[in-house]
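Let us practice reading a record.
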Amino acid sequence: MSVSSATSHPAQPSRSPDRMSPRAWAVLLVLCGAIFLEGIDVAMFNVALPAIRADLGLPASSLQWVISAYVLGYGGFMLIGGRAADLLGRRRMFLFWLAVFLLFSGLGGFATESWMLIAVRFVTGVASAFMAPAGLSIITTSIPEGAQRNRALLIYSGTAAGGFSLGLVIGGLLTGFGWRWVFFAPVVLAAVLLAAALIILPRTPSPAATEGAGGRRLDLPGALAITAALVLLVTAIERASHVHPVWTVATLTAAGVAFALFAVIERRSAAPLVRFGVFRNAALVRANATGLLFIAGFAAFQYVVVLYLQDLRGWSPLSTSLALLVIGIDAVLAPTLTPRLVERFGTWRVITGGLVLAAIGYATFAPLGPDWTYAAMFPAMLLLGLAFALVYGPLTIAGTDGVAEAEHGLAGGLLYTSLQFGTALGMSAATAVMVAATDDGAAGLLSGYRAALLVPLVAAVIAVVVAGSGLRARRSSTSAEPVSEMVAG
């Protein structure tokens, strides 16, 4: 924690160092509202897609781009969004892009053509890419490191996951009144949050005042190069199962060229967008790799389960949403149980334990039957809810562990970029395996689903190995660490 941040929050002897102040709780409430908004927006839209397709008569190709547009905006601009928060002001970036999110979500409700939906979803994805790391870095820079910050991060991440789970149900209900309400409903919540954020979010010194004029520069050439690289990479992953392999190879090659150009620019830049030295932080790299694998597995699992329940079993979108709702138990456990487990066992032990539960859950669902009852599916859903509570929140702690405060926005951008790539990679891998293993008829569909369910299982097993290396790293340094540092990270 920097000297400036320590002096800006005077000590209060009457308050326990593990208790957050009322002002900190108010800040956290606003930021949780924003990440909840993002979660329900994504989930509601996914549930409403069949109704949108039927109403507007969208072909499969256009529907695919409507889905991919948000991922492209989110994944492509996340890294520059995180760095912009560090350089241009976290509060400023959060407020501006929350307003953009509000505006374009409302515009989406008036769309009459596929290109309108694609444009709206792309811009809302970009807005989320700037808003999410700004919100995360506001937490990590305004709440003292240690038990307070850990609890705040776990509540924040639990709210995000809970928003997604509840969004599935809310989306099913709103779609019954008309799919346009899926766009209009977030506008009300966003407006309330924007008004509250203007009053509550802390005003911090501008980067120009604390770092000089040079500290305020944004590496524009590097930003353009990395954004192009990420957009190309996400596009290649998202479209891999729908286009000729030559197209995928060409897109991946172009992405590789853009990444190489970015590396050259960053090494020559006086104020790089990404300081490559940050990757010497083993915990940060491990957290990003683990997050990518964990989310890839869950995205693949959810995708297959939704298709199984709706296409093979004929369940309604609302029934499917209710079936997945138990996974949202992490919204209750993340702020209550997980902080105690982290304090007692350490971040990486909790993460690894959650990944083991995820692997067991996927394994129990792998022998999928043609007429499984919900009772047969429930154990896997419950295990995944527990896994989310133990993995997602602690990853936000590990992702900023040991990172300088001035680079918390960058660290948050890296983590959210990894999570977004995990979503794209998991769905694409599951789709590719499913298509390859599916034959005609219901039996063919079931064999395709079973094959695709191996994707989340393999991803979870690899994630256990990656996270397990964190346990070895912690053991090697335990003798030299103060107990307080062990609790924090």
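A brief commentary: Confidence is low (pLDDT under 50) at residues 1-15, 208-215, 478-489.
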